[in-house]
Write the structure tokens for this entry.
Amino acid sequence: MLNYAEQVANDLLAIGAVKFSPEKPFTWASGIKSPIYTDNRMTIGYPKVRQNIYEGLAALIQESFDDVEIIGGVATAGIPHAAWVSEKLNKPMIYVRSKPKDHGAGRQTEGAVIAGKKVVLIDDLISTGGSVLSAAEAIRKEGANVLGVVSIFSYELSEGLTNFTNAKLTFKSLTTYSQLVAAAIERGDLNKSQLTTLQNWQQNPNKWQL
């Protein structure tokens, strides 16, 4: 998967989906202060970039979860990539809402029937894993066997690794924080001082300070 990892890391940087601001950190929805912000929703606007992503995700799934029966997308950012991957692999697809509908049948998943089926979930990025793990639990309750999770990008945070371990769920990422930072250095997007800041943040984002 190295070629796809390097290509996608460079693609994300080239289109501005990843932004670095070590001197003036971003604030995530969780409240975490971060010197990096990733918006993989931008990728759907670039045909070649999204093609590299879905081909890479499809190859990753075939390599790691070759007995998958259904491809699932986590709302909302994982849905378009799941659609392209399911088409590439000729597999049925579902998507999973963040919570059940409050009307109609009250469903949280839409698409193929998943009871008794082997599902791989796709999300755009993994930080602590909260949203995708909630999605996995929701479809497990519907009788599906969740083989694992794949994402475009992972921050490689220890909290995320712990959460997936506790959930007894495997996850794989097309490209990672360390690969993306390496690509940024090679492109000249980061200097050594900024690299140190990024490394310190990743080791303990909840307690990180400038």
User: Anything to note?
Assistant: The mean pLDDT is 92. Residues 71 and 162 are 24 Å apart (CA to CA).
